[in-house]
Design a protein that fits this description.
3 domains; alpha/beta; Four Helix Bundle (Hemerythrin (Met), subunit A); single chain; 468 residues; Rossmann fold; four-stranded antiparallel beta sheet; elongated
Length: 468
């Protein structure tokens, strides 16, 4: 398995620090609002990565933080006239509701910044003792000039950043690039007692402290959106390695930007959509299939066209799963000449190549196409064959990609009358075809389609089933 490592700018063989154990840390939400579909992409792709590692037999410890103290949370609280804790709790609850709807498996640990103040203070003290951090009037800053490898993740150079980048002007800092580790308390803000006075932690130090608390001073994978490479992840490296004199993370994974109709998603352009809003129109499986059809590191242009395409793709998968689910219980016959192992191999080859989900999805559609040919070939095949096909889809499209909808194939007594009527309509349509009344046959098909039923003509006869 190979992973593109942002740190080394190349694909590298994945070798865990302590196999089969794998530690993963993903930057989670700042809980001041509902998360948007750009965040949803990062969360879903991180979910697929950890699912695949488990599929491969690794014992994954998956950690995603919640930033529950931050300028944005404080601003929102002030606007509503409530305590910052109220805002953080409200949107933490909303976050868990929405990721469940998106079929994102829960992380093993969701650390909160406010629950790790002690670890944050200890890390700052360590940096202060080594002369990398300095205090000014209750604020504590990180001195980037003291970390010789600053910029190694983003490729940025300190001298160029100082002269060209837009950096917040702060006369307290030794260098305009120095960043806050601890912020002096302001009136009305949440704060904690510390060796430097009342205050609260900076954003970057929170993730360093929480990730090392739960995964150790060096761990396997750190992931997040592409926009976090600089300064957030760059600063995490500087803090963690500056304090411990050892590598912080072995593999850095970053998820590409999401655009809306070729424009950057932003509130000012009016094209800002929350995941919650999208889930009112589209299923989790549609959204997951859509994201899976683009490589995680590539930019994705979100549009109605690709959403509709994903919907059609999901309908194809769902109808196929329903069909083979029926057949695995009732069909009898031979096992066709098809090597299902080759689809497992191709799926794993795709995912082993830097989690190439578009190629993995293509393997699933290839299997559907090939099995459809077998089903339309006129021969009956054993239920074991269809059971094996379904098992492949459950393991790959279901357990890894999360794009299989639950299919209920049980028929209750109340549906028998409807089934009889539908079969009668199919017989009438067949009679129309026998009399070459093709317009009438097509009209029956069209009307049934509008009612949510799909007719399929094969060499062995006609089947009718409800669309999902």
């Amino acid at each position: 398995m190979k992973i593109y490592n942002t740190l080394t700018k190349q694909k590298e063989e994945f070798v865990p620090l302590n196999p089969p154990n794998v530690g993963i840390y993903v930057c989670g939400p700042t809980v001041y609002d509902y998360f948007h579909i750009g965040n949803a992409r990062s969360f879903i792709m991180a979910d697929i990565i950890q699912r695949y590692l488990r599929y491969k037999g690794y014992k994954v410890k998956f950690v995603m933080n919640l930033t529950d103290v931050d300028d944005k949370i404080i601003k929102k609280a002030n606007e509503e006239g409530v305590d910052a804790k109220v805002i953080a709790e409200r949107f933490s609850k909303a976050f868990f509701e929405d990721i469940e709807k998106l079929k994102i498996k829960k992380a093993d640990i969701y650390p909160k910044a406010t629950e790790h103040i002690g670890e944050i203070e200890d890390l700052i003290k360590k940096l202060e003792k080594k002369g990398i951090a300095y205090k000014v009037n209750g604020d504590v800053f990180y001195d980037v000039r003291k970390f010789k490898e600053y910029g190694k993740l983003s490729g940025k150079k300190i001298d160029e950043l100082e002269s060209g980048a837009r950096v917040e002007i702060n006369e307290k800092k030794h260098n305009p690039l120095d960043f806050a580790l601890w912020k002096n308390a302001k009136p009305g803000e949440p704060h904690w007692s510390s060796p430097w006075g009342e205050g609260r932690p900076g954003w970057h130090i929170e993730c360093s402290a929480m990730s090392m608390k739960h995964l150790g001073e060096t761990f396997d994978i750190h992931a997040g959106g592409h926009d976090l490479i600089f300064p957030h992840h760059e600063n995490e490296i500087a803090q963690s390695e500056g304090a411990n004199d050892k590598p912080f993370v072995k593999y850095w994974i970053h998820f590409g930007f999401l655009n809306i109709k070729n424009e950057k998603m932003s509130k000012s352009l009016g094209n800002f959509f929350t995941a919650r809003e999208f889930l009112q129109k589209y299923s989790a499986e549609v959204i997951r299939l859509l994201f899976s059809q683009t490589h995680y590191a590539s930019p994705l242009n979100f549009s109605d066209e690709i959403l509709n395409s994903a919907q059609k793709g999901l309908e194809k998968i769902t109808n196929f799963v329903q069909e083979i689910s029926f057949r695995e219980n009732i069909d009898e016959g031979s096992y066709p000449d098809i090597d299902l192992q080759k689809y497992y191999t191709r799926f794993e080859e795709a995912m082993d190549d830097d989690f190439n989900t578009p190629k993995a999805v293509a393997v699933i559609f290839d299997l559907i196409k090939d099995v459809n040919k077998i089903m339309n070939g006129g021969e009956k095949h054993s239920g074991k064959f269809y059971s094996d096909v379904k098992k492949f889809l459950d393991k790959t499209a279901g357990n890894v990609l999360g794009i299989i909808k639950n299919v209920n194939i049980t028929k209750n007594d109340s549906s028998k009358e409807i089934d009889s009527l539908l079969n009668l309509i199919v017989e009438i349509r067949q009679e129309a075809k026998n009399k070459k009344a093709y317009d009438l046959a097509d009209l029956i098909r069209e009307k049934l389609s509008k009612l949510g039923y799909f007719i399929q003509d094969t060499k062995t006869g006609t089947t009718i089933k409800k669309k999902l």
